[in-house]
Design a protein that fits this description.
The chain has a domain of 147 residues. The chain starts with a helix and ends with a helix. It is built from five helices and no strands. It has 294 residues and is mainly alpha-helical. The chain is 95% helix and 0% strand. The mean pLDDT is 76.
Length: 294
């Protein structure tokens, strides 16, 4: 092997060492970036804890947050272990680079060994990147789960909104029932009027033919009695419905009377309380004045 080949091999080895140093610097940058992100996540979690302590959270929400926080601590521990391993690997790689530089400077290392070391270093770098990416994904997922848990103010807002929706639904239900009742009543009136018109038309068209014979008169009387029975049955049903509505009305009146009495009682108690408060303030002012006079 000539001098030119040796020089070319040394230059190639130096290029490989330079690439290896660049890979190590990239790994160090990734580790620093991961540390910075971890610090940001810790700051956000601290802010979240302060917000939880300030606003207050239900027991159920706290029970959901505790396992998440424990998982976060475990992830922090795992990240610390991964970071220590990365630091150890980086130190080992730096030592290997120094050794390679010395050996390349002396011309003692063949090109094949340098390629093998470079491939191993790249494999270590790739595995470290994968571990860091997996840890970051777990941290982001845990933070998203913590953010999904509603705080006390959000729960109160949801409760208020559901109460408003319930009131709207009840009003709409009462209005719908009222409209259905009106429709059914009008439909019954329509049926009765149609039957009445049909009966009057039948009587008007057949009266002269039926009234002239005894059998026709008997048949007409039977028909009238049948109509009367139907009207009596219909009237009985209407009276039953009226009685039911009357009972409901009486029950509502009793509830209203009880509520009005309770309201008057509350007003009386409130007035007495206000009078006692006024009397207490007056006595306090008198006592303070007597103390100042003494």
């Amino acid at each position: 092997m000539g001098n030119e080949d040796i020089i070319q091999e040394v230059c190639s080895s130096r290029d490989m060492v330079t690439n290896l140093k660049a890979s190590i610097r990239e790994l160090s940058g990734k580790v620093r970036e991961q540390n910075q992100r971890k610090c940001d996540v810790r700051d956000k979690l601290q802010q979240l804890r302060e917000r939880i302590n300030a606003e207050g959270v239900d027991v159920s929400v706290q029970e959901e947050l505790l396992p998440l926080l424990r998982s976060l601590k475990e992830l922090e521990k795992q990240e610390s272990e991964v970071r220590s391993n990365c630091d150890a690997k980086r130190s080992a790689l730096e030592d290997a680079v120094c050794d390679l530089e010395e050996r390349v400077a002396k011309g003692e290392i063949p090109e094949e060994d340098l390629d093998v070391l470079l491939v191993e270093s790249l494999d270590h770098l790739t595995s470290a990147k994968k571990e860091l990416a997996a840890t970051l994904r777990e941290i982001v997922s845990l933070k998203r789960q913590i953010d999904d848990v509603p705080c006390q103010s959000e729960l109160l807002q949801y409760e208020r909104r559901f109460s408003e929706l319930n009131v709207c639904i009840q009003e709409k239900l009462q209005q719908t029932r009222k409209l259905y009742g009106t429709y059914n009543a009008l439909l019954e009136i329509k049926d009765l009027m149609l039957k009445e018109i049909s009966l009057l038309n039948s009587i008007g068209s057949q009266f002269q033919d039926v009234i002239g014979t005894p059998a026709g008169r008997v048949k007409s009387i039977d028909s009238m009695e049948g109509v009367m029975k139907g009207i009596q049955q219909k009237l009985g049903k209407v009276q039953l419905g009226l009685q039911e509505e009357q009972r409901r009305c009486d029950a509502s009146k009793e509830k209203y009377t009880a509520a009005a009495a309770e309201q008057r009682k509350c007003y009386t108690v409130l007035r007495a309380f206000q009078e006692e408060c006024t009397r207490n303030d007056r006595l306090r002012s008198q006592v303070s004045g007597s103390k100042q006079g003494m």
